[in-house]
Write a structure and sequence with these properties.
Blueprint (H helix, E strand, L loop, with lengths): L20 E2 L2 H11 L6 E5 L5 H11 L10 E5 L2 H10 L5 E5 L16 E6 L5 H9 L5 E9 H8 L9 H7 L2 E9 L4 E2 L6 E8 L10 H13 L5 H4 L6 H7 L12 H10 L16
The chain binds S-adenosylmethionine (SAM).
């Protein structure tokens, strides 16, 4: 049977694109209320799907638009059948539909006149790579509001000392304020997913952000430590930091990766020097 939708038939959800569509009006409205979109803002939605959030976003923006003016937004959708349906439902001046993979999409041109407010019920199978991809456009982003698997949101928001704290927590929290907003149950979607979901907001820290001397080294060190998260940092970072440096930094070398704050990671990164050890050279970060 052909994989392509017949335009007059209902769309069949595609697992490979992480398609679980929001159908519960209560949550659709609550999400858009929490975004509070305005017509003068540059809103970009990743994965509009069947437009559950898109329609509500446009309605909310219209409510604040000048008389006789209709709001517009940009959406990025990979599924060409859904793209065709979106183009059939919305005129191009209302919805700029970019048929593209959000993982390789260039967000910069969209931010030419204003910083972007990025939103989306993200496909769970690629949520972490999308978050890392968007870090490349941090300076062009006003904020981001996403629906993600609850467990991923808990890792994103985990503070030092939390068991869920990991590479994702540190790499996001040194750029953004990460705030979990609320949970969304599986029954709010069709098909019903096997996992719980949550809404999370990321706001760039801007001038409050700590800047390590080398972003590359920072990423390498955080990755190296969390790859061996059960080890004390003295061991997992032996290729980077010697005993004297731990003393200078005032950081307990017996701590574990999850115990450290973003400021401590920046201090380690700035104080570290790649060393040749019995363990070999420091490893490059995983992609
Ligand atoms: N926003 C809709 C909703 O809330 O009902 C759909 C959400 S569904 C979880 C994820 C959407 O992202 C689907 O429409 C899917 O086709 C799209 N998608 C999946 N991978 C994508 C990618 N790499 N780039 C852009 N869109 C993608």
């Amino acid at each position: 049977m052909s994989e392509i939708d017949r335009p007059d038939a209902p769309h069949r959800a595609r697992k490979r694109f992480g398609q679980n569509f929001l159908v519960d009006r209560h949550y659709i409205e609550r999400i858009v209320e929490s975004i509070d979109p305005r017509p003068e803002q540059r809103i970009v939605e990743i994965g509009p799907g069947q437009a559950a959030l898109t329609r509500e976003l446009l309605t909310a923006m219209d409510a604040h638009a000048a008389k006789g003016r209709a709001a517009s937004l940009d959406v990025i959708e990979i599924d060409r059948d859904l793209v065709a349906r979106l183009r059939a439902e919305f005129p191009p001046e209302r919805l700029r539909v970019h048929e593209a993979d959000a993982l390789s999409f260039d967000f910069a041109p969209l931010a030419a006149s204003a910083k972007l407010r990025v939103v989306g019920n993200l496909p769970y199978n690629i949520s972490t790579p999308i978050l890392f991809r968007l870090c490349e456009f941090e300076d062009r982003i006003a904020d981001m509001t996403f629906m993600l698997q609850r467990e991923v949101v808990d890792r994103m928001a985990a503070r030092e000392g939390d068991a869920e704290r990991g590479r994702l927590s540190v790499m996001l929290q040194y750029r953004y304020r990460v705030a979990k907003c609320f949970d969304v149950p599986p029954g709010a979607f069709r098909p019903i997913p096997a996992v719980d979901s949550s809404i999370v907001r990321l706001t760039p820290l801007g001038s409050e952000r700590l800047r390590p001397m080398s972003e590359t080294r920072f990423a390498q060190i955080v990755t190296a430590a969390f790859t061996q998260r059960r080890k004390m940092i003295r061991k997992s970072l032996a290729a980077w930091v010697d005993a004297d440096t731990w003393a200078t930094l005032g950081i307990e070398p017996t701590a574990r990766a999850e115990d450290l704050s973003v400021a401590q990671w920046v201090a380690i990164s700035d104080g570290a020097r790649p060393r040749s050890t019995a363990h070999g050279s420091p490893k490059a970060p995983a992609a």
